Every structure is written in C-alpha cells, then in structure tokens.
Amino acid sequence: MNFVTISTLPKKIIFPVLCCLLLFCSFSVIAQSSNYWSRNFNEESSLLSGAVVGGGAGPAAIYYNPAGIGEIDESKLTINASLFSLELFNASNVWGDGKDLNTMRIIVVPRFISYMLQPQQNKKWNLEVAFLSNENFKVEDINNVDDLKDVLENIPGKERYNANYRYDNDFSDYWVGAGGSYKINPNLILGTSMFVTTRTLRYSYMVDIEAGTPVKNLNSDPNFKTAKFTNIEYLKFNNYRLLWKFGLLYKTDKMSYGLNITTPSFNAYADGKRVMRKRSQSNITNPETGEPVTDYLISDFAEVKDMHVNYKNPLSIAAGLSWQNNNDKSLFLTLEYFFGLDPYKMVEGNEKYEIANDNPLLKEAYKEWLTYVWGAKPVINGAIGYRWIAKENLTVMTGFRTDFNYRKNLNYSPYIESKTVKGFTIDRYHFTGGLTAHVLGQDLMAGLQYSFGIEKNQQQFINLTDYVEFDPETGRALQGNPKNNVTSLSNSLSIYFGATFNFGKSE
C-alpha cells in the first residue's frame, strides 16, 4: 500500500491547508438544537439550501450523497468560513410571566474543509476526505427574582422571596470522514462514505429559592430560618460514534436523480463523562393542614466507569433530482425522511444511594435519578434550489429549506419528560442565496442565509412569578404550576465566504 506524504502534495496547496487548520482551531459556531437541517457548509450546496441529493453538491457530496463525488473532473481543496453571523433568540415567560430568556451573538463561523481527489490512473474512481461542523448550539441565561410577598403560611406579614436561576446548554457535533465514488457507466455512479462523529454536550440547570422574614441586622434573630427549595442538574460528555452513507446518482442529458441512505449511528466510545443531580427542600408548611412538609435532600453524582452514554442518530433516506435547461439554468429538489427514535436512555449513571420518599407525587421522578432520556419523532424536510449563469464565470444560486424540530410534542413514555435535557422545540425555515465566481482557475463563493422560527404555547421551565409556599396536588414548593405560555422566536443572519482550489483538470 502506498501512503501520500505532505511532501508529495502540490506546494501551492500547503499554505491554504495550514490556513484552514488554523481557522478551525480559532472559533466556534452556533445553530439550533433538535433540528436536522440547521447545518450550513458554506459552499454551493448551502447556496442551494442543501437541495443537492440529485446532483450539484460539489465538495459537500460526501455528506449529501457520496455518489456525487463522481461529478468532479479535477482535484479540489475546499475551505469555507463565515465572515459574520448574527443570531437573535428570545423565549418569553420561560422562568415565569415576564421573565424572558434573551441572547444575541455575533460570531465568526468556520464550517467545512475537504479535499477531493480525481486519480489520473483510474478515472472511474473519485475520492474525498472532509471535516465538517454538523451542528453547534449554545444558549445560556442567568438571572434572579427578588420580591417582598406574604408567601409563608406560619410567618405573618411579608417575606423576602429570592430565587436565583441559571441555564446553560452547549452542544456540538463534529464529523470527520472519507468517501469515494465509482462510475458504473457514463450515466450511473455509486458512492459511499464513512464518518466518525463527536457529539459533545455541556448542560447545567440550577434553581435556588429561599423565602424568609427580611431583617436589616443579621444578629437580631439568631434562630432565623428560611424556607428553601433547590434543584441542580449538571451533565457533560463526549460521545464518539460511527455511521455510513450509501448513495446513487443517475444522470441523463437534462435530468439527474439521486438517492442517499444514512445509517443509524453506532456507539464507539465516550469520555469526559460526568452527571450530577440535586434536589432539596426544607422548612415548608402545607397550607391546607398547617403541618410541616417532610424535609428532604436527594443528591448523587457519577462519572467515568459509573456512567454510560448512548446519544443516537436515526436512519434517514433522502431523494432528489435536478433539471438543467440549456446549460445556464438548473432547478434542484430534495426530500429527506428521518425515522423516529423511541424514547431511550441517553445517559445512565449508577446511583450510590437507594432513594426512597413517601410522597407518591415524587416517587416517579426519583427513579433512576441519574438517567437522562432522549428520543425523536419521524420528520420529513424538503429543499428547493435554483441556479443560473448570469454571465461567463459568474453563477447565481438561491434556495429554501424547511427544518422541522424532531422533539416537538414528543411523548417520552414510558419515561417522564422531566428526565430529559431542557430545551426549545422550534420549527425553522432557511432562505439562502449568493454567487460563485470563477477567477484565475479557482472558484470563489459568497452568500448569505436568513433563518426564522417561532413557536408558541410551550411550557415554562419553572414558574417563579405565581409562586406559593406549597401545592399539595403537585408537591411543588416555593413556585407556581408551569404555564404553557412560552413563545420562542429565533432569527439569524449569516454572511459567508468560500474558496475551492482546483488542481490538474483531467484530460
């Protein structure tokens, strides 16, 4: 077997390779979680909104349909990076009426590097290696509620109600892969690719509530006590997985048809594993009986060998077609069906303590205290793209795609929803456009993407505005019953640039 060393590569590609590696080491990216089509690889496939399973994917063929690798007729190095990305996210009433979550980010977003090889000795084969950022999502919020209100049953007058809360959800999904295609005949191409994916999650959720008589001098009442409720969650892991793609591309004079099958992912390894959950309650009185409610402290922690991680990807099937008119205008259509994932244990931690509680309202929540569940509904997404040659060496592309959320209204049975990572389930819609210029034998691409999503009537994380000391029906202390009045609104605009360096066009 012959191995290619860096010294054998054309000298003119070494500098771009080093530049793109430095670029990827420098920045992080953002997208929307629980959506399969939020990705944007920032080259011609992105300008066409990903409607390229039936051809025209360019270097992104290794992802969309590996049979499309066979469309190249020269070796290519592709580097893509956003020049600018602005994301605005607002979720109203998340922590209670008027207690909103707002984020704004302005970032640089590198997304995609690939090298496509067209072997001169066997032109039926084409090969490609690629590194890509499939998803990267981050939302964080920290704030508090500080009121004076008569909330405690056994203390006359108003008490100080102080609640501090924090939410941090940081998820990334990076892929490294290799693929190849083989031309059966001038019309039919088969292809396959294999990826190693790295899914990293850093999640924390904290609510700490105290209520007690406000005092100016802390020494005035040495027996001063407060009613308390605390809920803390922390989860961290890296999950390495394997998956494969199998593609077919059939081309005629004006039409091209594509099919791509993506296998479910297979668990390979996990590290960086830690999980912790704590919930406590003290000095709470039942307003119906006037009797104290049982105090409790439930806390556990697991890591490394005491923790199992299995963050699955579903089977999906994509089909697409492209139609070309007189070599200057092309229409692209793609549909992809993602199969569902029955609710499953994404994280399992071995509990150190046997947890028991006499309150029947809480027993179910205490089972498998260090377990987090996940799942996905079946969804189908569609994309349409249009490309036309405006003039020699200048091509304009535009597109639209849906991006439906796979956890929206998901039934987690036989598990309970409180066992999952808290998040937002928003259907999104992406509009893309830009142009490609062929300059001095190389391809330069520039474009933008606008994404929009809104979702109403979602449930609050917690209700910290309509709070009571204790609700006997739900067992909740120092909070109100969560309402379904959260409206999530997401807007983002990305301006990006890409370059493809072409080497040695085939004869």
Count of separate DSSP helical elements: 4
Largest sheet composition: 14 strands, antiparallel, barrel
Order of helices and strands: HHHEEEEEEEEEEEEEHEEEEEEEE
What percentage of amino acids are in beta strands? over 45%
CATH names the topology as Porin
The name of the CATH architecture is Beta Barrel
What form results from the Cα inertia axes? elongated
Main β-sheet, spatial strand arrangement: 1-2-3-4-5-6-7-11-12-15-16-17-18-21
Q: How many domain units?
A: 1
Structure overview:
The chain has helices at 11-24, 44-47, 61-64, 360-366; strands at 75-92, 101-117, 125-149, 159-183, 188-212, 227-251, 255-262, 266-282, 296-303, 307-309, 316-325, 329-338, 341-349, 372-376, 379-391, 394-403, 428-439, 442-458, 463-471, 476-480, 486-503. The protein is mostly beta strands and 507 residues long. The strands form 3 sheets. Strands 1-2-3-4-5-6-7-11-12-15-16-17-18-21 form a 14-stranded antiparallel beta barrel. It has a 3-stranded antiparallel sheet with strand order 10-13-14, with no helix packed on it. It has a two-stranded antiparallel ribbon with strand order 19-20. The two termini are 26 Å apart. The model is unreliable at 1-32 (pLDDT under 50).
